[in-house]
Design a protein that fits this description.
Helix content of chain A: 25-40%
Strand order of the largest sheet of chain B: 1-2-5-6-7-8
Largest sheet of chain A: 6 strands, antiparallel
Structural class of chain B: alpha/beta
Radius of gyration of chain B: 29 Å
Strand content of chain B: 5-15%
Strand content of chain A: 5-15%
Largest sheet of chain B: 6 strands, mixed
Shape of chain B: globular
Distance between the termini of chain A: 44 Å
Number of domains of chain B: 3
Structural class of chain A: alpha+beta
Strand order of the largest sheet of chain A: 12-13-14-11-10-15
Shape of chain A: globular
Order of helices and strands of chain B: HHHHHHEHEEEEEHEEHHHHHHHHHH
Oligomer: heterodimer
Bound molecules: iron/sulfur cluster
Order of helices and strands of chain A: HEEEEHEEEHHEHEHHHHHHHEEEEEEHH
Amino acid sequence: MSLIVTLARMEALASGRSQPLATVRHRHLSERPMVFVPLTTAGEAGAPLGALLGTDRAEPRLLVVPQPRNRDLRFAFLAELAARLLPHLESALDDVEHEQHGDEESELCADAPQLLVPNQPGVEFVRLLGRSMRFRRTAQDDPDAPHPVPTQVPLLGRWLTHYGERSRVPGSALLLSMTELLGRHWATGQSQLEDQHLGALLGWVAASDRDVEARDPAGQLRWPPAGPATDPAFDNHLLAPAVERYDADVPGAERQVRELIAGQLRPAWEDMWDGVELLRALPEGRRVGERWKRDRYSYTHHRDRVRAGEPPQPRRDDAVTAAAKLASREQAQARLDAQEALDDPLAMAARRLTGEAFAGEVVEVTPAWSEGKRPRPRPLVTVRSTDLPYLAVGGRAHRELPDGGRQSAELAAAPESGLFLLRLVSGMGRGKEPAPGSVPAAGDRVCWTLFEHSPRGGPGLPDPEDTPWTHGGPPVLGGEADSEASGGTGTTGGAEPHGRRLPAAREAAATDPAAGQADTAPDRVTTEDYL
Amino acid sequence: MTAARSSTAVRSAPSDNTSARLRERLTALRGGPDVPSRPMDARALAALAANPGCDRRALLDGAGVDKGALATALGAPAAFGQSQFAFVRGNAFEARVKAEGGAELIRLLCARTGETPPEAGQVSVPDLTADGPAGRTARTGIALREAPVGGWTLLDHPMLSLRIAGSPAWLEPDAVAVHPDGSWSVVEIKSFPILDGGADPAKVGAAARQAAVYALALEECLAEPPPDMPTEPDAPRAVRDSALLVCPVDFSNLPTSALIDLRKQRAATRRQLSRLTRVSEIAERVPEGTSFDPTGQSAMQLSASVDTVPAAYAPECLASCELAFHCRSQARATGAVTTLGRAVRGELGGLTTVETVLAAANDTGHETPDGAESAESAGSGDTGGSTEPNTEVGGEDQRADPAAAALRRAASLRAEALRQGPSTVTAPTPADETPGAGEACR
Ligand code: SF4
């Protein structure tokens, strides 16, 4: 955490109000995002309990599994979820633009549907739902398949898998969590751990006085968590008895379960939309559109894969695909860091603090030219700054020109502490004289970065992670960001790059006849799966 | 357990005295012999090992205080609990894994170790019932040693003990398997899934820490034969370095397994537990007559008692310690920076409260022009060149407390950026147009 962020948190704590961490909005926000607040059943992976979803704050759609252990009810939930979510996810398929890349023209969807969930576990749940749905068999796939599902279910599984996978690319915005969005733009006076509670985080940002830990005399939280996990006290004292009544066919029991679940979801639903409004009030960063274009490419490519009849994303990435994804995400992170700094003085301040950028005033400009047959302008610019960049003589610095172009310079000398003599080496046009506006004048304020403004990868090109699944592999489930953490868990796989993989289990999957089928075979289902 | 140590009685006589005194002291802190001691389980021990820096927790756990009841009495009840949905599912899964007289579980183990799985009905599952935890522990100790070499034995919910700061903690692993070579394996059955060969690293880590505690208890059992069985067994007994983790595979209720290497965790936990002998030192520093017994004390009195023991609150406590809400409100009241996260401490040097941090950050009285004043001049934009430059900024900063200097720089950079901020940034402009006046970088 940057010291600037730490400081903002302290100020928030001292003032009792959140403090800004950004002066612009750094993520794309759709005009009509799909807000999805899911709940899961405790103790079972990816078992849905209920959800509120919709694109209209006034009209949330409630989906409920009144008996979470009933397979048919769960499948009904998934079918209804598909019926509600797919129209949104497929709403932008046909409105296309055409992009020219050299000789090739490619189609690009003009927009992409956005999915917003409350928190990071919500994002993980979307991935898990996607994983649990995309291998399901429909009656068309196999008339004899046990428990066939409507065609929309595996299709939604593929979309959710794609959105979940995309969400791992830094700066992407197809699937976002509200806690991450708010946390990027505001500092609260609590820890990041506590910020994972959307209600608590929003309490700070919207300056509403709320105690999200308070319980009523019956022991129920007054401000339920924003899912996907429910509070155990809710499960044990309210939900379980209601489900029991449902099992016993007590009249009105289903309605009661629905009301209970709606009651848990509604505060988060309102918080989601409050969050959307707070974020809308921030002006969008100038480079957000460029990143969103990458998201649109990602969306378009997935559309093409589905249309081409490719099979669902397989279970695991092969080593090459995994490495390529990792590399592209690192690149995306560097690009995001650079773009945020260029778009936002507050993000730049953090880079200045760490010596990766410096800002100051031009005190002197001396025209100069390179030697050789065709002399080029190489003016010397003296900048005074109180910043402390890690820049040695001969080192490179970059700045953005007023017309949006880029300029590089090298440090010619540092005559005294706080003075930087820079030789401009690019961004001045082709002539002998520098293009107008390309050389700063004495008194101008300039800001130089030591980092590249667009670290590799041209703008608007698809990311390597968007190579077709058939040419690469499926998403990595489990999160490579955690590989470090899992290195310390003492698994025998700790030395592997992906320590979270349990080698023995993987072996099992390979040697187990049931799991060793094609990587897109349906999951094994046993009668005891649903207790 | 003390009886079992008779063989070392001569050497440890003085320390036995000490530990007897300590036990007495801890009993008094708990509220007297009538207040039942709350035994530590492996989860508590693993959590303890995760935050070993806290004296308060070490002493309360060491004294067997019911921290949940204490927190409630303090007016800050903990919010821990398990959903019965998870509970039911977990139990059903465990029952399934242990079906067929343990044969399924041994098969899962053999699949990982490469040993030959036994024929059906060839796993012996000894009866471990006995009175009280001490009795059950002794029974387990005997069963572990009586397990016939050359065959498989599965101990279903055995009881182990581990001495923590002089008093025994009772531990109940899901199972311990005795291999045909006589060695012992800890078995952990968890209900989180192994999905496509991977599992949640946080959960695997917690399971490994828990299994490491069991392995330590097995080591202790190995080192100290039960009293009724003092002679060396003829089989070469040893605790295996890996535990077997059994989890549901993917979205099913079918078990799959993995070996978790415990060596690192075991060493780390052993080190942290040995540090818990500090409990006696901590107890020494608590004023005579202090009691943590919630009955007969007001919340104020209780709080005063608890406060005699220093805490080390960090947000991680919220997930691992019943007293978290109490300690957090105290930490907040004193303005401790750690309420914002443990990592925060590192960058702030010796500054431990929000007040001192903010004072250092906004130290306008400081001689360096690096505070608000220079921020003013920097922020005044194109015409801001009139301020007399100070070229000694770097030198001054180096002489001063580096953390305070960094804070002042951070505060001034932040203030400058905010002044340039939203009010001056124009609405989003396409990259090819002239951007607004408040741009970060021109
Ligand atoms: S909550 Fe309090 S007693 Fe418990 S570990 Fe944290 S600081 Fe120590």
